[in-house]
Amino acid sequence: MRRTSLFLSRALTAGGFEASWASGTPRLSPTGPELGDFGFLSETGWQSHAWVECGNVIVDITAHQFGAPPVLITDRHDRRYGKGNGDTALPEFILARQRAVDEIWPRWRCNSIKPSPLIPEMLAYTAE
């Protein structure tokens, strides 16, 4: 989820959108104390998660692991999302995530086509 969201934020940025990677971690270990309402709020509580913020929306292509739709585009203030104060991963894992995206990026750029004309319309979405 973290690599996927990092890749998506890079792809949207390359397409001319202001996109940023966001995440939240409610606890640092399975038995650790609760840090707060961070991550994604599933039916079983807060889960560590990463997503992309783009304009007024959240674009989440990995929330399906918590029972949400495979692609979730929602208002940036959706209460299911709790942004933390930073990436809680160890530096070596942050670097490994960045390297993984860097490794596939050139191949994706060579094979990618122009973004769908629906993307700006989807990202202009605001929840009612």
Features:
alpha+beta; 4-stranded antiparallel β-sheet; 7 strands
Fold topology:
Blueprint: H1 2-14, E1 19-24, E2 39-42, E3 45-47, E4 49-54, E5 57-60, E6 72-75, E7 81-82, H2 91-111, H3 118-123
Antiparallel strand pairs: 1-4, 2-3, 2-7, 4-5, 5-6
Please provide a written account of the structure.
The two termini are 27 Å apart. The chain has helices at residues 2-14, 91-111, 118-123; strands at 19-24, 39-42, 45-47, 49-54, 57-60, 72-75, 81-82. Helix content is 31%, strand content 23%. The longest helix has 21 residues, at 91-111. The protein has 128 residues and is of the alpha+beta class. A hairpin with a 2-residue loop joins strand 2 and strand 3.
Low-confidence stretches: none
Q: SSE order, as H and E? A: HEEEEEEEHH
Helix content: 25-40%
DSSP E strands, number:
7
Summarize the structure in short.
The chain is of the alpha+beta class. It has three helices and seven strands; from the N terminus they run αβββββββαα. The strands form two sheets. A four-stranded antiparallel sheet has the order 1-4-5-6. Strands 3-2-7 form a three-stranded antiparallel sheet, with no helix packed on it.
